[in-house]
Amino acid sequence: MALVDLTNVTNLIRQSVPNIDDTIVEYIVGYLNETQSGGDGEDVITDFVRPILVDAGGEEERIQKLCERLSELFVQNSSDNTSNNNGLNKLEQPVNMLTTSFISATAGLVAQNVDLEAVSGRKVSTRVDTKKLEKAEAKIKSKMEKRERRSNYEASKLLSKKNNDEFLMQVNPILDYTTTKGKIKDVKVENFDISFGGKRILTNANLSLTYGRRYGLIGRNGIGKSTLLRTMSRREISVPTHVSILHVEQEMEGDDTLAIQAVLSADIWREHLLSEEKLLNLQISELEQNLEEFDEVTLEQKKDAANTRLKEIYQKLEEIESDKAESRALFCRPDLLLLDEPTNMLDIPAVAWLEQYLKKWPSTLLVVSHDREFLDEVATDILHQHSERLDHYKGNFTQFYATKEERRKNHLREYESQMQYRQHLQDFIDRWRYNAKRGPQAQSKIKILEKLPVLEPPEVEVGVTFNPPILQLNDVSFGYPNGPIILSNVNLSVQLDSRIAVVGPNGAGKSTLLKLLTGALEPRSGMMHRHGRLRFAHFMQHHVDQLILDMNAVAFMAQKFPGKIEEEYRRQLGNFGITGMTGLQSLKTLSGGQKSRVSFACLGLQHPHILILDEPTNHLDMDSIDALTNALKGFKGGVILVSHDERFIDSVCTEIWVCESGKVRKFEGDSIKQYREMIVPKEEP
């Protein structure tokens, strides 16, 4: 079977688009090579090749002629392959004709090749044009195969580490740092599109990264955040060539490589040059050991060529200070650092260290994360990827959330106002359109209505649903380092509608269990499943330690939850009985109950899915306990609490867990009263 000469294709592309990048040419030719046997060359060139060439800066007229020429080549190749078959095809396997008459209609329909007449044994009338049907099915099948080939080809470009490293070396050349000094290192890319696997990720998007700022990239799973980072690192969008890039991907292969060596290996140019140096030294050594196999002239030529290349390599290694790489590996400073989910698999101390390290990062940072606390600590700006676009917000995640909600409300008000105005015009038109006296006015209103722009309704975000269980512990055991086991073989699950009271003697591990549930403590053994998007609000028994006592309640909330106006903080505090001048008093002057109310007000601003409360009724008066009880009854989420207040437990909770002797079990009774009767011996009459 004759295939299209790809060298000829390469030359045609270069002639038509002289300034095209070598990498893009290689990508196009590689994809055409993968698909040329599929028989859909014309569609591939129109849908795949043409947009890439236009984006590469080619002239429309020359690209059109090139596409026509390529279509001729591939269509002719496809027809040649078809004509060579002479209408005969070799079967992949023998066919048992005896069994074909017993094929079920259902199986045939699934296989999409059923012959109803053969199955039923009678003539079946149909109005369907079988030729058109076959043609339509063939077209759909061709499109599906083409899409699959494109996805497989794009994926294959990412799977091979060797090919990926070679590609990255092409798009990230060794920089002469003396020539990059003084150049602007901001990244600004306008009106770009990104697609992957046949799916559009971004359309006509704009990206602006100011040098020295730290950007958090957020968006729903599968929206294309990792694809955007990969596209930037491969310079498939116009990132300036003098801006150095380091991309730390989300998933990395695990092996026994030393940590320092893994960091050094991320410098692909250094690794490549050192590998080539080793190979050249080996070649020179082999030449000297096998002198008798070569004449003197040939030997000298080979040694000179190897030594010349070796000298070039040493010069480049000296430029990138390879000998000092190990000492500066952990202090590498690319102009643009791309991090994809860096807090995954890190424990709390490691996350805290990373936060402090990145807060001092001197150049540009773009990090993908779903950790709100991490983004609040690190990010100076937020990029929200959604609906095939990027929206920029100043501030950390908490400020983004408040600003986004305000934008949504403003958009909704504007939309409703415009809809009312248009409805008013339409009502006037409907009423007076055919009236002789007011007909001209109605016609004028029609023209006004026609000239109004298309009104886009506000986007409605689809809510996230949690599949049970959202929080589960399986055979979990815990004990502090070098200490005894406090809890062993704990098995329990929590749902969004759970109302659970944890009871037991003091020192049995109730507070420890709550900290395990929130993730503040990690188990020694066992499995703990916690939904990735689950938000907790934890009221600690010693909650006063979390307050800054020299501040007043309003200022404390503004510091902890920035981005709101003072009236919102006052309103939230007022909901918990902190009103008037009390909100402006120093926290250390408030009573224990008032401090508890301030802590409860802070919990409400976290918008949690699960409330975890450790002795919440301590310091509260009766009225406050009643108010807290009613609030928890109306809370649309899960509640887990530790309390010694029996009335409070009976009013709020539907389940009781008993924590004692290092075990946690569910109490089978119906009320806390029954539990009390079980543990308190009856007095003898």
Question: How is this structure best described in words?
Answer:
This protein has 685 residues and is of the alpha/beta class. It folds into 5 domains: 6-81 and 146-153, no CATH class; 161-252 and 332-395, Rossmann fold (3-Layer(aba) Sandwich); 268-331; 404-451; 471-679, Rossmann fold, CATH 3.40.50.300. It contains 26 helices and 17 strands. Helix 21 (553-560) packs across helix 22. Residues 97-121, 155-164, 253-266 and 320-331 have low confidence and may be disordered. Residues 270-330 form a coiled coil.
At the first level of CATH, the class of the largest domain is Alpha Beta
Share in helix: 40-55%
Oligomer: single chain
Q: Could you name the CATH homologous superfamily of the largest domain?
A: P-loop containing nucleotide triphosphate hydrolases
Pfam families: ABC_tran (PF00005), ABC_tran_Xtn (PF12848), PWI_ABCF3 (PF26051)
Protein name: 2416_t:CDS:1
Coiled coil: 270-330
Domain ABC transporter: 187-412, 471-685
Short description:
The chain is of the alpha/beta class and 685 residues long.
What's the layout of helices and strands?
Blueprint: H1 6-16, H2 22-35, H3 41-55, H4 60-83, H5 97-100, H6 105-111, H7 116-120, H8 130-159, H9 161-171, H10 177-180, E1 187-196, E2 199-209, E3 214-218, H11 225-233, E4 245-248, H12 259-265, H13 268-289, H14 296-319, H15 325-328, E5 336-340, H16 348-359, E6 364-368, H17 372-378, E7 381-386, E8 389-394, H18 397-432, H19 439-451, E9 471-478, E10 487-494, E11 499-503, H20 510-518, E12 525-530, E13 536-539, H21 553-560, H22 566-574, H23 592-604, E14 610-614, H24 622-634, E15 638-642, H25 646-652, E16 655-660, E17 663-666, H26 672-679
Parallel strand pairs: 3-6, 3-7, 4-5, 5-6, 11-15, 11-16, 13-14, 14-15
Antiparallel strand pairs: 1-2, 7-8, 9-10, 9-12, 16-17
Coiled coil: 270-330
Domain ABC transporter: 187-412, 471-685
InterPro entries: AAA+_ATPase, ABC_tran_Xtn, ABC_transporter-like_ATP-bd, ABCF, P-loop_NTPase, PWI_ABCF3
